[in-house]
Amino acid sequence: MTRTEITPSPTVTPRSEEQIAARVKALEAMLIEKGIMTTDAVDRLAEIYENEVGPQLGAKVVAKAWTDPAFRERLLADASAACAELEIGGLQGEDMVVVENTDTVHNTIVCTLCSCYPWPVLGLPPNWYKAPAYRSRIVRQPRAVLREDFGLDVPDSVEIRVWDSSSELRYWVLPQRPADTEGLSEEELAGLVTRDAMIGVGQPLHPGR
Ligand code: FE
After folding, report:
1. Cβ contacts of residue 160 below 8 Å, gap of 6+?
2. What is the pTM of this model?
3. What's 30-95 look like in SS3?
4. What does the pLDDT look like over 23-71, one tens digit per residue?
5. pLDDT in tens, 120-145
6. Would you name the residues annotated as active-site residues?
7. 207 CA distance to ligand 1 middle (Å)
8. Of 43, 56, 95, 121, which is the most exposed, with the fewest CB atoms less than 10 Å away?
9. Where are the domains of the chain?
């Protein structure tokens, strides 16, 4: 499959769910009519991204990075290659870059142009990720947006870095491993990793919560 991306034109933004649905239907009908796609392929793709691909895959990668320092190194050096070791990859994940949170740096991702996002590890982006409000404001006032919109207080002593994804490079975040998780298995650790933590607008859960 060639690398294509259908993104809303910034000048013609659909106004309602109904308009978006109508537009999707029209696009689908056109692609099928022109023989570019089949209905079966459309159904299969929807099924994959609804049921099979999602943040649970990214969480698995994060948990492995927390427990396997050599894997963590490989993940930070070449995220797409490291994910491929776990048989995670595919459309919109060809060139992924993982940025690591530390005691002094908090990373957040955005696509200021449209909605580029690492599908193979996070699934499809949430609506707010595609909204102009988030895309424009997270760049200018990251600390305020994280606090006001996501309830995430990043201390002033921690630098916030905002990474602008594109169709060539898709960033995502390796969050910090929560305290008091020494005794947990990789699978239990993965259960603490949320989608928002990998976007950088949240933190992983604490055990028992
Ligand atoms: Fe984009």
Report:
1. 105, 106, 107, 108, 142, 143, 146, 154
2. 0.83
3. HHHHCCCCCHHHHHHHHHHHHHHCCHHHHHHHHHHHHHCHHHHHHHHHCHHHHHHHCCCCCCCCCC
4. 988 998 998 899 988 888 888 888 887 778 899 999 999 999 999 999 9
5. 999 989 999 999 999 999 999 999 99
6. 111, 114-116
7. 34
8. 43
9. 14-52, 55-199
Report the pLDDT value the prediction gives residue 5, as an integer from 0 to 100. 55
The two tokens of residue 179 are: 């305290």
Give the Å distance between the CA of 22 and the centre of ligand 1. Answer: 22
Which positions ≥6 away from 56 have C-beta within 8 Å? 190
For helices 69-77 and 55-67, the axis angle rounded to 10 degrees is 120
Q: Which residues fall inside 5 Å of ion ligand 1, going by CB?
A: 111, 113-116
Ligand 1 centroid – CA 6 distance (Å): 10
C-alpha of residue 206 to centroid of ligand 1, in Å: 32
Query: From ligand 1's centre to the CA of 82, what distance in Å?
Result: 23
Hey, what amino acid is at 205?
A: L
Distance, in Å, from the CA atom of 115 to the CA atom of 71, rounded to the nearest integer, reads: 28
Q: Does domain 55-199 have CATH number 3.90.330.10?
A: yes
What does the alpha-carbon distance between residue 153 and residue 20 come to, in Å, rounded to a whole number?
Answer: 34
Of 11-20, 30-39, 110-119, 154-163, minimum mean pLDDT range? 11-20
